[in-house]
Design goal:
By secondary structure, the protein is an alpha/beta fold. 41% of the residues lie in helices and 15% in strands. The strands form four sheets. It has a six-stranded parallel beta sheet, with helices on both faces. The chain has a two-stranded parallel sheet with strand order 6-9. Bound molecules: NADP nicotinamide-adenine-dinucleotide phosphate.
Length: 303
């Protein structure tokens, strides 16, 4: 029997991507989220979610405002720590596993090489600390848990770096972009496919102890924020969309409330070894994402 996927967090990038990919793959999925379900306060899953009879719960809801979190520690922890624990407890009560999404910002970036899951986390800011606390809350609440640390998520949906860059290129010819933070950009649609394949594997094989714990799940390859913007501008220019020159600057020239890791590249070997999943190169996702955004843009511009 195939999986039935209950997704928490219906309007976010990853939740929207899960809805799209589940429909394309004919996997029954139900999304619930605010305003009906607030994970910071919910006591139990709503009746319709229980009636859906999921085989797995995916928590794609999170407080994701990295800089704002520095001033809103309680709000960030209410969702990313306590809320994550509530979702995992609800999955355990239903008797099904939970797939929880976490972040590369649990690392401090001091390691010169890509991170592996056994490297000690050491978050630099409130957001990363709240997500790390959430991982622990999930592990406490649900024995059957898969925690996916992903990174630098972009998509045609919601708010993200690629969309922001294209919007800025509408009015600017040159942009100064940070070029000394290295990471693993991840296309929400590729991540959604990876999540659904994990759900399928678990449905096929039943729960296995080797599925438990933390996995890195990011697109293959690495770049800087400038590298990501440059690729997005090139893809957009090829389609006649907005483009700009991307000039490199150091992090010190772009101060933000929250400190970011200089290196948060993720080694995704455990995901491949355990589930047979390797996400495609990040720039393939950029091309697809920009293609969708520029086409949409053109459609909107045409009277
Ligand atoms: N974005 C990134 O670059 C990035 C990088 C690494 C890891 N991640 C992780 O990936 C996951 C998905 O991120 P994303 O990019 O899809 O985030 P997103 O686009 O910001 O969406 C977050 C979603 O969470 C929902 N949410 C927030 N608080 C909630 C609450 N109390 N109850 C119910 N829903 C709530 C939001 O609902 P509203 O629309 O109502 O606010 C929104 O639908 C998160 O766990 C995030 O930490 C993201």
């Amino acid at each position: 029997m195939g999986p039935r996927v209950l997704v928490i967090g219906k309007s976010g990038q990853v939740a929207t991507a899960l809805t799209e990919r589940a429909e394309a793959r004919d996997i029954p999925a139900m999304c619930i989220g605010r305003p009906e379900v607030d994970i910071a306060t919910m006591d139990a899953l709503p009746d319709e979610a229980i009636a859906f009879a999921p085989t797995i719960v995916v928590n794609a809801a999170a407080y994701t405002a990295v800089d704002k979190a520095e001033d809103e520690e309680d709000a960030a922890f209410a969702v990313n720590d306590a809320g994550a624990g509530r979702v995992a407890a609800a999955a355990a009560k239903l008797g099904v596993p939970v797939i929880h999404i976490s972040t590369d910002y649990v690392y401090d970036g001091a390691k010169p090489e890509p991170y592996v899951e056994t490297d000690p986390p050491c978050p630099l800011g409130v957001y990363g600390r709240s997500k790390l606390a959430g991982e622990e809350a999930v592990a406490q609440a649900a024995d059957r848990h898969v925690i996916l640390r992903t990174a630098w998520v972009f998509s045609p949906f919601g708010r993200n770096f690629v969309k922001t860059m294209l919007a800025l290129a509408e009015t600017r010819d040159r942009l100064k972009i940070v070029d000394d933070q290295r990471g693993s950009p991840t296309y929400a649609l590729d991540l959604a496919d990876a999540i659904l394949t994990i759900a399928e594997r678990i449905a096929e094989t039943g729960w296995q102890q080797r599925y438990q714990g933390v996995f890195h799940a990011a697109n293959a390859g690495e770049t800087t924020w400038r590298g990501l913007a440059h690729k997005a501008f090139a893809a957009s220019a090829a389609l006649g969309g907005p483009t700009a020159a991307a000039d490199p600057i150091p992090t010190s020239d772009y101060p933000t409330a929250a400190e970011r890791p200089l290196n948060s590249r993720l080694d995704c070997g455990r995901l491949k070894a355990t589930f047979g999943i390797a996400l495609p190169d990040w720039w393939v996702g950029v091309r697809d994402c920009v293609g969708r955004l520029v086409t949409t843009h053109e459609k909107q511009e045409t009277p």
